[in-house]
């Protein structure tokens, strides 16, 4: 199941996903998070796009600031929700002018977020397959797409789901990032199915550190990610004990990544939830150390 040759040092290559801030306080927190994680040298950092394009401006501003103030490579998430092709193409053009060359191309969900019914617009891109084609028609972007080890909740079966992924790859997707999952056997079986379907792009595991078990469990319910009983037991009784919870979360997540690494994986995408400390601890356990690879410009200049 090996995808890329192992790397020196920790042998890992990581990317970090952030969401755009809503308030000034959240913005400060996001930048603290980016500055804390940047020295780990992620191959890229991505910024999500809210349901219904609700964060269009904020996503753009965050990406722009990453480009201006750091040496990190940003990837802009983009969805088809509630926008015409022209509107989406205009957003792409603005990103192009800012210097963005990597998109995470998604269909998106309906107005109520995850699980909300998606209704394609007559004049819009109907799904990620079409969005990838639209992006490629504009420029030779690097394009990451979503993949679902436990299949997308709307998919009738794995065959349909993987066929959709194949069409995204045929249209130009260069990497798939998975929905988060907790059972590595499930991921391994999924990659085998994907390879059997003739899909050879990297399938990068999406890793979610469990900062709050109750919240993650609720979200898992909507995305279709199963929570194994052993995982629930690890967090049992810690509802009022955030400090222990955070130690357990770091250990559980590092354990998952180390096991995937043993199975031949070297690339990992972390859903950071803008919580740098937990992700930083996990990366430290994994053997990653702050270097100079992609430090914020200010630090790089001072070094
Ligand atoms: P698609 O690949 O277009 O389709 C998803 C599924 O829908 C398919 O697997 C298939 O089962 C079904 N389907 C679609 N079209 C057809 C068809 N014609 N015939 C049959 N079945 C069909 N959401 C956001 O709003 N903002 C984000 O920033 C964001 N980032 C994400 C990042 C990652 C790494 C992941 C895994 C998900 C992210 N999402 C985000 C969630 C995503 O938008 C939802 O999972 C959405 O429901 C599906 O998007 P998609 O790109 O996978 O859709």
UniProtKB/TrEMBL annotation:
InterPro entries recorded: FAD-linked_oxidoreductase-like (IPR029041), Mehydrof_redctse-like (IPR003171), MTHF_reductase_bac (IPR004620)
GO CC terms, sorted: cytosol
Cofactor(s) annotated in UniProt: FAD
Keyword Cytoplasm: no
GO BP: methionine biosynthetic process; tetrahydrofolate interconversion
NCBIfam families the record matches: fadh2 (TIGR00676)
One Pfam family hit: MTHFR
Family affiliation: Belongs to the methylenetetrahydrofolate reductase family.
Name recorded for this polypeptide: Methylenetetrahydrofolate reductase
Reaction catalyzed: (6S)-5-methyl-5,6,7,8-tetrahydrofolate + NAD(+) = (6R)-5,10-methylene-5,6,7,8-tetrahydrofolate + NADH + H(+)
EC number, as in UniProt: 1.5.1.54
Pathway the protein contributes to: Amino-acid biosynthesis; L-methionine biosynthesis via de novo pathway; One-carbon metabolism; tetrahydrofolate interconversion
Transmembrane segments: none
Keyword annotations: Amino-acid biosynthesis, FAD, Flavoprotein, Methionine biosynthesis, NAD, Oxidoreductase
Molecular function GO labels: FAD binding; methylenetetrahydrofolate reductase (NADH) activity
Enzyme class: oxidoreductase
């Amino acid at each position: 199941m090996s995808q890329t040759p192992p790397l020196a040092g920790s042998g890992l290559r990581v990317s970090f996903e952030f969401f755009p801030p809503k308030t000034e306080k959240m913005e400060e927190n996001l930048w603290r998070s980016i500055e804390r994680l940047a020295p780990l040298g992620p191959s890229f950092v991505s910024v999500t796009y809210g349901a219904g394009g609700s964060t269009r401006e904020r996503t753009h501003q965050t990406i722009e600031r990453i480009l201006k103030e750091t040496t990190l490579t940003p990837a802009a998430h983009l969805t088809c929700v509630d926008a015409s092709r022209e509107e989406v193409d205009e957003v792409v053009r603005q990103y192009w002018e800012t210097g963005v060359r990597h998109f995470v191309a998604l269909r998106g969900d309906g107005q109520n977020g995850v699980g909300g019914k998606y209704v394609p617009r007559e004049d819009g891109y109907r799904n990620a397959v079409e969005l990838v084609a639209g992006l490629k028609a504009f420029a030779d972007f690097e394009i990451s797409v979503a993949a679902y080890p436990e299949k997308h909740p709307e998919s009738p079966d794995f065959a349909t789901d993987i066929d959709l992924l194949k069409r995204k790859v045929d249209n130009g997707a260069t990497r798939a990032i998975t929905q988060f999952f907790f059972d590595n056997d499930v991921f391994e079986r999924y990659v085998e199915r994907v390879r059997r379907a003739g899909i050879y792009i990297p399938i990068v595991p999406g890793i979610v550190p469990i900062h709050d078990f109750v919240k993650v469990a609720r979200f898992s319910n909507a995305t279709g990610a199963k929570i194994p009983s052993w995982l629930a037991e690890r967090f049992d009784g810690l509802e009022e004990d955030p400090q222990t919870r955070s130690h357990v979360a770091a250990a559980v997540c590092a354990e998952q990544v180390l096991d995937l690494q043993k199975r031949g994986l070297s690339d990992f995408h972390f859903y950071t939830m803008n919580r740098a400390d937990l992700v930083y601890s996990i990366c430290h356990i994994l053997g990653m150390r702050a270097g100079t690879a992609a430090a914020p410009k200010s630090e790089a200049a001072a070094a």
